[in-house]
Amino acid sequence: xxxxxLFTIKVDDEIQLALIEESFAPIYAEIVSEQLDYLSQWLAxxxxxxxxxxxxxxxxxxxxxxxxxxxxxxxxxxxGNIVGNCSFNNINHELKKxxxxxxxxxxxxxxxxxxxxxxxxxxxxxxxxxxxxxxLSAAVNNKPSRAVAERCGMILEGVISNSEKIGDRILDHAxxxxxx
Length: 180
What we know:
alpha+beta
């Protein structure tokens, strides 16, 4: 697959981040349709965002928020293929803090992709956005995401109980952060 996105950031020789665009909607819909159960383990949105139209609306909202300086949402491109998504879910200019979010196709886990992506996002937050703090929230039992935070040098700041409802489960979240 050749992606002609003009707004890309090179992470390394295998990974790029591309500002989300409408042409990505069919790819996201395909990943979610094939991996609904996997993605729904830790994410609230997959049952509600599955069609190309759902993702087109998501892209529109994301680009609007980006234009307003509220967030940054990018496709994760690994070896030329879209394999997931990463974002600054919230850019708080007043507090000089961003919150990172992401998801990755099950077939691509275990390759160090998310660790490299999150490290790049941390660098961008400090160098391009002039932030002082980067946060990452992961369900307490989501060991892979917690390990990503720890490998990136983030420190556990605490646990927030009853933080999110995923399906029938109410999850506690571990809050990680790194300061400039």
